[in-house]
Design brief:
140 residues, mainly alpha, 4 helices
Length: 140
């Protein structure tokens, strides 16, 4: 076959080899052992390329997962902080309401005491009247 190719094109085998390497960037393979070695080399290169691609894909997936985990951690921390703030606000509001109720109760009690004292002082002449009015004030 080498002879036929050389005679037909008018080029030597070296020239054919150089020309084929320029066009295809792969040499013409004339002998079975060369062909076998060439395909072994090509297979190894392809396997190495596939392995590199797998590693790149795995690294990309790991980066994405890390970002997602970071986002989840941040979101969880923000949610916890918000619940703590809500709980504190709720406790403050409950405390304020309880204080207002105690103030209102104290004011009512003081008002009743003031009314009783006023009635006692203003009408010392009739103790039964004072008792009846104090009873009405305490009931209302």
């Amino acid at each position: 076959m080498l002879f036929w190719t050389t005679c037909q094109t008018g080029m030597s085998s070296r020239q054919l080899k150089n020309r084929s390497m320029r066009k295809n960037k792969s040499p013409l393979i004339f002998f079975p052992q060369q062909r076998k070695n060439y395909f072994k080399k090509m297979r190894k290169e392809k396997e190495a390329e596939l392995f590199r691609e797998q590693l790149q894909q795995r690294d990309q997936i790991i980066e994405l997962l890390a970002k997602q985990m970071q986002d989840e951690i941040i979101a969880r921390a923000v949610a916890e902080q918000e619940t703590k703030e809500e709980r504190k606000l709720k406790e403050k509001e409950e405390k304020r309401i309880a204080e207002l109720k105690s103030i209102a109760t104290h004011r009512v009690t003081m008002l009743i005491v003031a009314v009783v004292i006023y009635l006692y002082i203003s009408q010392l002449s009739s103790p039964s009247l004072i008792q009846s009015r104090c009873h009405l004030a305490l009931v209302t």
